[in-house]
């Protein structure tokens, strides 16, 4: 019996060693891949979205391509369900979350972040002829926002949350804005950079309340354990700031250099 127990323990120990080696090799492969798979919400203009030719374009798309070129890697943009972004990253199906990804303390527990590269805020948008002019006017109203986004965090953190009549969550901001235009909801909590982009195309449709819910910053999310990839990416971003590449991309999409240095 004793011999059998020793044999069983030896078998288990060997299994653990093999598993450990396998995990280590997998981690190294993750950090040395030639192709970076980047998870995006492909309806998040102007950060990453599909144009009239169904091509994925945007500020973050151009930034990612430029960074990957410096790193000597190819890049693949993978549209994902934004509500499962951290799961996609931790599972290894994507290497980076890079599409207007807000840095929060809760997310820092799950992923590694680059230094912030862009400032943003969560704002309230309504139709231009709406009688909603300030946060208090949201009492009893139906408010829409993107599911599992920092918009929801910002609304929950504000006292007006207790006065809102109903919160409707959408898969993306485009669907939320469509429901706003058709009158199914009264207002939308949305990223300032996003609504600024849409207002350049439909300036007579929307208005943004003066009171913002929360300032925030965007960063790129990297899987925990991939410190080497994080360092390489940050070095590329730093180089882009120094040589003017990031400023050029920002001016292309925003008209001004908004990139944090």
From TrEMBL:
Pfam family name, one: SBP_bac_3
Signal peptide interval: 1-19
One GO CC term on file: cell envelope
Domain Solute-binding protein family 3/N-terminal: 35-257
Alphabetized UniProt keyword annotations: Coiled coil, Lipoprotein, Palmitate, Signal
Record-linked InterPro entries: SBP_3_CS, Solute-binding_3/MltF_N
Coiled coil: 223-250
Primary location class: other
Places the protein is found: Cell envelope
Family note: Belongs to the bacterial solute-binding protein 3 family.
Protein name as it appears in the record: Amino acid ABC transporter substrate-binding protein
Organism the protein comes from: Fervidibacillus halotolerans
